[in-house]
Amino acid sequence: MMMNDLVARLTHRKKGYTLEAPFYTDKDIFDVDMEVIFGRHWLFVGVEPDVPEPGDVMVVDIGKTSVAILRDDDGEVRAFHNVCRHRGARLVHEEKSTVGNLVCRYHSWVYDTAGQLIHAEHMGETFDKSCHGLKPVHIRSLEGLLFVCLAENPPKDFDEARAGDGALSRAPQSARDQGRLQP
Ligand code: FES
């Protein structure tokens, strides 16, 4: 289905009624949805207590994209494409785990919790490990609620809303407060 067809279907949808069947069954519409909505906007994926301690990792799959969210050794929550930079193998397989470093099970490349490649066997002396760290994914924590954006340049609405009147940051009891990060 071409984009024009999709826009026409949306424009002429019958208000107050469910969308036409293809919106629930058509693979092309699904692909557009994944690209235009899930691939470009901020998505809620979890809470900071999902990764409470340094080395804790959780994996979130967004369509065909797997994202590893982990707390690094300095306590910062980071997100990376869950793909080894050697030959593209999936790096973390478990939904939740705790690691010292991230070790690929195929040829044992090792990444630290900040995503830097720290060990790669048989790559020769000229190989530059600093150019082969994990690919980062944009992540924000809003009072402990974790949002990621797969786009290279994420929309500014999230930061703008947060910077606005502060309403987004005035939750009575934040997810962070409910976790183990604060007494
Ligand atoms: S694919 Fe990960 S080390 Fe080779």
Question: What does it look like?
Answer:
This protein has 183 residues and is of the alpha+beta class. The protein has a domain of 128 residues: Rieske Iron-sulfur Protein (3-layer Sandwich). It contains five helices and ten strands. The strands form three sheets. It has a four-stranded antiparallel beta sheet with strand order 4-3-2-5, with no helix packed on it. A three-stranded antiparallel beta sheet has the order 1-10-9, with no helix packed on it. The protein has a three-stranded antiparallel beta sheet with strand order 6-7-8, with no helix packed on it. A hairpin with a 2-residue loop joins strand 2 and strand 3. 16% of the residues are buried. FE2/S2 (inorganic) cluster binds next to loops.
Task: Give the N-terminus to C-terminus distance in angstroms.
Answer: 53 Å
- Name the structural class: alpha+beta
In N-to-C order, the SSE pattern is HHHEEEEEEEEEEHH
**What is the overall silhouette?**
globular
CATH topology title of the domain at 49-176: Rieske Iron-sulfur Protein
Number of helices: 5
Mean pLDDT across all amino acids = 90
CATH superfamily of the domain at 49-176: Rieske [2Fe-2S] iron-sulphur domain
Primary descriptors:
alpha+beta; Rieske Iron-sulfur Protein; three-stranded antiparallel beta sheet; four-stranded antiparallel beta sheet; binds FE2/S2 (inorganic) cluster; 10 strands; 5 helices
